[in-house]
Amino acid sequence: MHRTDADLALLELLAALRRRGYRFVTPTNSTYRIVLRRPDKRIGRDLRDVLGWSLPFCPGSIDEEVETLLARAGCLAAVDSGVKATVRVSEVQSQLFLHSAYPPDADAVFLGPDTYRFAEFLRSELSAASRPIVRILDVGAGAGVGGIIAARLTGASDVVLSDVNARGLHLASLNAAHAGTPVRTALGDSLGGLEGPFDLVIANPPFIADDGRTYADGGHDGTALSLRWASEALTRLSPDGRLLMYTGAPIVQGEDALREALARAASAHSMRFAYREIDPDIFGGELRRAAYAKFERIAAVGIVIGPAREIGAA
Known about the structure:
- By secondary structure, the protein is of the alpha/beta class.
- It folds into two domains: 5-100, no CATH class; 113-306, Vaccinia Virus protein VP39 (Rossmann fold).
- Helices cover 31% and strands 25% of the residues.
- It contains nine helices and twelve strands.
- It has helices at 5-19, 29-35, 47-51, 64-72, 113-126, 145-154, 166-179, 224-234, 257-268; strands spanning 76-79, 82-85, 87-92, 95-100, 135-139, 158-163, 184-187, 198-203, 237-252, 255-256, 272-279, 297-306.
- Strands 5, 6, 7, 8, 9, 10, 11 and 12 form an eight-stranded mixed sheet that branches. A two-stranded antiparallel ribbon has the order 1-2.
- Helix 6 links the parallel strand 5 (135-139) and strand 6 (158-163).
- Helix 5 runs parallel beside helix 6 (145-154) and helix 8 runs parallel beside helix 9.
- It is globular.
């Protein structure tokens, strides 16, 4: 794959941050808003301020090599108080990932608390995989966290990262190169053009209802994209293949329509599925919106669909 000088600068940036022991865990946007109101979070003074909290900084005031690499990559934007990095770097399961700076725009390359839950879900399901996994498809890959971690856990040699966001696929390919994980990328919002079968399909789809932000919008009540991706994935699995999905499920009067719909989809393919709540209440602030007027909570859920002989009853 051809790499531009800007690409090489970002790869060198990740390597430089690794040598310096850089670590940052990306919190929710709500936490960002609270923390960035503090008096000591107006101007960036160190690498975590600049590449984690997305604070502006005065040129020449941070690590010289890092600033030079950001400039070479074209990832510094002029602002009133100096310059600001247009990328963030966060650590997930000891691996560094490039993603969009805060505040995110509508087409941001997302990485946040859901990413950490997704990564842990993958680790819990794949750490003791009983069958060899060669081909992996990560649908809606974003920064590539899922595909890269799944490849590391399974040793898969053919990993495809798919996303509707070209910028996301670009950063994902750089993240994969830094991790030493060979990947292929596919631009699009459907699995229709992807040649199967796959031993493992993973997905962390957007699940916010009628949101308008590409990285967050799950369509309609927030479940449309999860259901479509799951339905398409089940037709791309190898005979022993599995779908692992982390998403959000809106709960109405104690009922989970997403679970019921996925159970029907699994049954239609003569597969069994396991479904569990990972966190019973996430994105509570969304309940103020009209789209959620009838919903009582949003649950983070982990879904496994695969051969009946390998998956316990839900």
